[in-house]
Specification:
- Helix 1 crosses helix 2.
- The longest helix is centred in the middle third of the chain and has 16 residues.
- It is built from two helices and five strands, in the order E-H-H-E-E-E-E.
- The chain has a single domain, classed as YaeB-like fold (2-Layer Sandwich).
- By secondary structure, it is an alpha+beta fold.
Length: 89
């Protein structure tokens, strides 16, 4: 069995604002689901659930993590930086 260690991510400004808005007046179940998804991502960014879908950009690959909730949200990340937290598009 391979043991992994948690990785600390940096956050762009937009995801920080999205988290603040969720904490202040977002649906509690969505805030919990986003935090759970971030915990899973930080615990093991190499896991298949942390690399659900991949997009190619000029700056390199961006990975999508779905937020498990009745709300259709996602987290986009690359190079140990969370780039987006918000509704799926």
């Amino acid at each position: 069995m391979v043991q992994t260690t948690a990785v600390e991510f940096e956050y762009d400004d937009d995801p920080v604002r999205a988290l603040q808005a969720l904490d202040e007046d977002g649906p509690p179940d969505l805030a919990d689901a986003v935090n759970d998804a971030l915990d899973r991502l930080e615990a093991d960014p190499e896991a298949a659930s942390s690399r659900n879908r991949r997009w190619r950009t000029l700056e390199g690959p961006v990975w999508m993590v779905p937020v498990r909730s009745r709300h259709r949200w996602m987290i986009l990340w690359s190079e140990r930086v969370v780039r987006y937290i918000g509704p799926e598009f």
